[in-house]
Amino acid sequence: MNNFIDHNYITHLITQAQSTTAAVIDTILEKASRMQGLSHQEVAQLLFIQDAEQKERMRSIASAVKKQIFGHRLVLFAPLYISDHCVNNCTYCGYRRDNQFPRRHLSQEEIAQEVKALESLGHKRLALEIGEDPKHCSIDYILESIKTIYNSGDIRRINVNLAATTSENYAKLATANIGTYILFQETYNAQRYAELHPQSLKGDYERQLFAHHRAMEAGIEDVGGGVLLGLSDYKFDIIAMMIHNEVLLEQFGSNFHTFSLPRMMPAMGVSLETYPHLISDEEFIDIVAILRLAAPHVGIILSTRESKEMRDYLIEHGVSQISANSKATVGGYGEESSVSQFEISDERSLYQTMYDLMADGQLPSYCTACYRKGRVGKIYHEEVTAGRIAKLCTPNAILTTLEFVLDHGDERMQDMALPFLIKEIQNIPDEPIRQVAMQYYVRILQGERDLAL
């Protein structure tokens, strides 16, 4: 395969974009307001927006696009770390090989206990997190762990954050009933990438870059990308990620299902003082807004690395998925492990997160209907861009939130949430869908579960 990230081209594009005029920015924002998406060239130009009024307009349009596409729904999930063994020496990670601490990987019995702990909190969607270690975390161990999770209760969808691997292993993973396969490029700058991954399997830039291609060719239909903001020049990385997004769409008929945008955080053996490319809050907000305009239908994920205040703001301006009540430690939901992969800022319980979201007029969602009804990959891309899936998302969000309120909420939450959810059903514009949603709502009140449109 030919490397589709041309460093000279991106550098030249950045240089050109610095002289973008206000008139050109206005034209791009007008296009973005029509939810047509943006090219990577237009993204480059927005990354250099300077005028304060235009910047505020950009954020306002991003908020409007988010509401139009996603409504005020917000998908929730929890990460589940099953191993901190890793053969890589990524300089930014608490699990790097040179860090000396007692490593562990969970037995299947321990994984089942973690699942029960997560379910007792109310979680239905998990992101499986695994360090790269062929000895301790083979593909067979990962596949067995996925089976254990599904067989241990009512977890309805597992997304998998797994190191780049072979086509053969991706084919095995494709049979495991996963949701989205997620892999960050970390940074698209090849020179910086080599510096950050010394003497590591992960240090093979093109192995990482073409992992999503191998995964999709092997039958995994939904893939998620991302960069770790702060490792390199964020403008280069965001432009490159958009080029990557375009390449996948052209080649496979569907692009990234999600973008993940973690920022560098302190961790064991990691000092932020050695990273000259850290980004400010203002830059972070602009990145989220630009990506929402550039790829209106792609989910944007935000982790508990960020504070409640930052998460609340970004939810309004583009973020559509968040982790909640997260533990970035192996075995962390049953007992605290010694080392966290990174520091967590939003430490609210899932109950409190759900309560706060609804109190702010947001609609939490644990919906997994698209995965289980075959609305994935190219089919998902066609359906979502045509606006058909959006009609089902709100009722499914209502129904999954109702389950949480009944099963994990107290009287305080129910008094607030039940009228809120009824009002949400009444606001569904499509009458047949509204009627079915109300029927399912009543059936859930009567004790049924897992009803989805």
From TrEMBL:
<keyword id="KW-0411">Iron-sulfur</keyword>
<dbReference type="InterPro" id="IPR024007">
    <property type="entry name" value="FeFe-hyd_mat_HydG"/>
</dbReference>
<dbReference type="InterPro" id="IPR013785">
    <property type="entry name" value="Aldolase_TIM"/>
</dbReference>
<dbReference type="InterPro" id="IPR058240">
    <property type="entry name" value="rSAM_sf"/>
</dbReference>
<protein>
    <submittedName>
        <fullName>[FeFe] hydrogenase H-cluster radical SAM maturase HydG</fullName>
    </submittedName>
</protein>
<dbReference type="GO" id="GO:0042364">
    <property type="term" value="P:water-soluble vitamin biosynthetic process"/>
</dbReference>
<dbReference type="GO" id="GO:0003824">
    <property type="term" value="F:catalytic activity"/>
</dbReference>
<dbReference type="InterPro" id="IPR010722">
    <property type="entry name" value="BATS_dom"/>
</dbReference>
<dbReference type="GO" id="GO:0046872">
    <property type="term" value="F:metal ion binding"/>
</dbReference>
<dbReference type="Pfam" id="PF04055">
    <property type="entry name" value="Radical_SAM"/>
</dbReference>
<keyword id="KW-0479">Metal-binding</keyword>
<dbReference type="GO" id="GO:0044272">
    <property type="term" value="P:sulfur compound biosynthetic process"/>
</dbReference>
<dbReference type="InterPro" id="IPR034428">
    <property type="entry name" value="ThiH/NoCL/HydG-like"/>
</dbReference>
<feature type="domain" description="Radical SAM core">
    <location>
        <begin position="70"/>
        <end position="305"/>
    </location>
</feature>
<keyword id="KW-0408">Iron</keyword>
<keyword id="KW-0949">S-adenosyl-L-methionine</keyword>
<dbReference type="GO" id="GO:0051539">
    <property type="term" value="F:4 iron, 4 sulfur cluster binding"/>
</dbReference>
<keyword id="KW-0004">4Fe-4S</keyword>
<dbReference type="Pfam" id="PF06968">
    <property type="entry name" value="BATS"/>
</dbReference>
<dbReference type="InterPro" id="IPR007197">
    <property type="entry name" value="rSAM"/>
</dbReference>
